[in-house]
Amino acid sequence: YRFDGRAIYQPRTLSLPRDLLDSVLGTRLPGRDVVRFAGQARMSARAAPGGWRIQAAPWRSDLLGPIDAVEEVVLARGVGPEDALVAPSRTLGGRRPEILFRRRFLPLLLGLGYQPLYHPVLVSCSSIDRLPGLRALRLSNAPSAEFGALRPSLLVSLLQALEVNVRHGYPQRICELGPILEPNAKSEAGARTAYHVGAILAADGAGFASAATLGEYLLRSIDMMGVRESAEIPGTIPGRAAEIHVAGGVVAQMGEVHPQVLAELRVVVPVAWIELDLTSLWP
Fold first, then answer.
1. Torsions phi, psi of 107, nearest 5?
2. What is the pLDDT of residues 243-277, one digit of tens each?
3. Is the residue at 47 inside a domain?
4. Which residue of 45, 71, 177, 196 has the lowest C-beta tally within 10 Å?
5. Does 86 map to a domain?
6. Is the dihedral of CA 30, 34, 39, 41 positive or negative?
7. Given CA atoms 61, 66, 72, 75 in this order, what sign does their dihedral have?
8. Verdict on whether the full-model pTM lies above 0.85
9. pLDDT band of 56, cuts 50, 70, 90
């Protein structure tokens, strides 16, 4: 064939270093297995100092260097689940006690028939304006009209949920557990992030007593009792709203939503609301 003008292609030789194979594979593979897997990849392997010499077929133009030979052996062996190695640590990972404390409340509300919801922290400016006196941080460059402010209370999001569910029947029981941002000049970011759990009951018989009873039930679930004091809360009926104090601090707010707010939302039944500050309740 040498003199008739036809080209003769010979196998190409590549190196397969042992240290590179071990680092990629994550474990040490016996030499006989390396030869066997190389054969399954249609490559011949022979032992050489520091590893093996690989004979690759002429048509395998994709095999350019040692890392390509290692990849062929690894794929021929198969990539599957391996026994995990636990990194050295003094402690094992787990949920923080504060997170476990927060997670105790939604199952209680779910057992009472309340439907958990999840809303973004960003809310519309109109939802803030419908509650006169409510202080909230507003975005100077809002992405849209629906996300122009940061909610300072879960009441804002829960009322939005009532607004979009006016076509459904009553009673409606909804709740939420999530973060809120309260304006705070002493904070470096200008706001205090806290986690609240809130619930709303929209029904014919809903009133201040409904919210007060639910608030006492949630506090008793963590073996805590508070002192209820009358308060003026934006969006509620004067004289039909209160705060719960524990150790001199406010840990909950409750009340009946003002009829003017309900008329704007097109809600035709009374609404009772309760909201607990879980960040303040956490010891």
1. -60, -35
2. 999 988 999 999 999 999 999 999 999 999 999 99
3. yes
4. 71
5. no
6. positive
7. negative
8. no
9. confident
